[in-house]
Amino acid sequence: MTDVALLPPAASSIAARTDALFYTLVGVSAAVALLLATLAVVFCVRYRRGSRADRSRPPTDARGLEWTWTIVPMLAFVGLFAWAARDYARLTRPPADALPVYVVAKQWVWTLQHADGRREIDQLHVPLGKPVRLLMTSQDVIHSFYVPAFRIKQDVLPGRYTAIWFRPTKAGTYHLLCAEYCGTDHASMAGGVVVMPPERYSRWLAEGDRSVGMARQGQALFRERGCVGCHDARATVHAPDLRNIFGRRVFTQDGRSVVADETYLRDSILEPAKDVVAGYEPVMPSFAGQLSEQDLMALIQYLRSDLNDGGRQAPAARTPEPGTP
Ligand code: CUA
User: Fold this and answer.
1) Are 138 and 193 found together in one domain?
2) Hey, which residues does 146 pair with through a beta bridge?
3) Are 131 and 16 within one domain?
4) Phi/psi of residue 59, nearest 5 degrees
5) Are residues 93 and 240 in the same domain?
6) Helix, coil or strand: residue 113
7) In what order do the strands lie in the sheet with 123-127?
8) What percent of the chain has pLDDT over 90?
9) Which residue among 74, 167, 228, 324 has its CA within the 20 to 30 Å range from the CA of 44?
10) What is the DSSP string of 156-187?
11) Taking the complete model, does pTM exceed 0.90, yes or no?
12) What is the CA(297)–ligand 1 centre distance, in A?
């Protein structure tokens, strides 16, 4: 689909698909509206009072017609649903190599942090052609992360994580907006996404004020906040071993099983009694109110990084954490 002035520029891998769906919906709606309007006018003229139209044998049975106007629209709508559902499902499944970016929204700014530690406000720099996954939460009310040129929009909620991903296909700067009314300055809660060629992106990342990578920050928190006292393999307290925890299936005391994703890790830190691992006592204190959203995200980045394998695997065998020596 080529750029039509009707829509913003199309700059992500999903954009052309979304536009095709949009134009199809508009086309189908226009065709149906035109058909109905034409029929209405034709019948009005043909059967107006005093016209000589043949009214002698009104039809008593129109099964064929009724089946047609039932089945055809039904197939059309089910087809559109299946098409849209496929694209939507695609948006929820990021590629495994997607770059993680952590987003915290608050009235009325977007704060973003890259895995290597570099922070941004109301701006997001990303490499051209590489998939990027955003893990997002809000510090106050509901916001919505919206990049029209990428055709992505995702609500950002307090107290939980939402995620979305995209693959930029065109270099340039695109609007980043908040699409959920969030108070007085909602309209100014905007910024830009800068898509740059990968080499320039690497340079941009290197020249920043990145102090410490997020995984290192998380590792420091893990020690400072005493997590290590119970969760270390050598600890005397009986607590689940968290090495390589990320993405693992965990069995809980009440017989359920959950995948240890970001939401599970967040909940386990803030509400430890919710998903107690089978075979363990619910003795962990809650850290609610003691860790900022950024702290939680750093802890999660640590737990999923290669720093968290207890030194069991050779570093060369795993992808190194960006920004760590
Ligand atoms: Cu944030 Cu509207």
Assistant:
1) yes
2) 153, 177
3) yes
4) -65, 140
5) no
6) strand
7) 123-127, 191-196, 172-178, 143-147, 152-156
8) 48
9) 74
10) E-BTS-EEEEE-B-S-EEEEEEE-S--STTGG
11) no
12) 21
Q: What is the pLDDT of residue 147?
A: 95
Q: Is the domain of 24 the same as that of 171? A: yes
Decide whether any atom of ligand 1 lies within 6 Å of the 143 Cβ: yes
**Structural domain span for residue 224:** 214-303
**Domain end position, chosen among 209, 231, 249:** 209
The answer on 224 and 194 residing in a single domain is no
Verify whether ligand 1 is closer than 6 Å to residue 186 (CB atom): yes
Same domain, 150 and 177: yes
Which of these ranges, 244-248, 255-259, 314-318, has the smallest mean pLDDT? 314-318
Confidence at 214, pLDDT banded by 50, 70, 90? confident
Does residue 176's CB lie within 6 angstroms of at least one atom of ligand 1?
Answer: no
Average pLDDT over residues 151-177: 94
Count of domains for the chain: 2
In a domain, 312, yes or no: no
166 and 89 share one domain: yes
Closest ligand 1 atom number to CA of residue 142:
1
- For 227-236, the pLDDT digits (tens) are 877 787 777 7
120 alpha carbon to ligand 1 midpoint, in Å? 17
- pLDDT mean over 263-272: 85
Taking the C-alpha atoms of residue 81 and residue 75, their distance in angstroms, rounded to an integer, is 10
pLDDT at residue 89, rounded to an integer: 92
Under 8 Å between Cβ of 153 and 221: no
Pick the residue whose CA is nearest to atom 1 on ligand 1: 143
Q: Which atom of ligand 1 is nearest to the CA of 180?
A: 2
Note whether 193 and 255 are same-domain residues. no
- Cβ neighbours of residue 108 closer than 8 Å, sequence gap 6 or more: 178, 182, 183, 184, 185, 186, 188, 189
Give distance in angstroms: CA of 172 to centre of ligand 1. 24
189 lines ligand 1 (CB under 6 A): yes
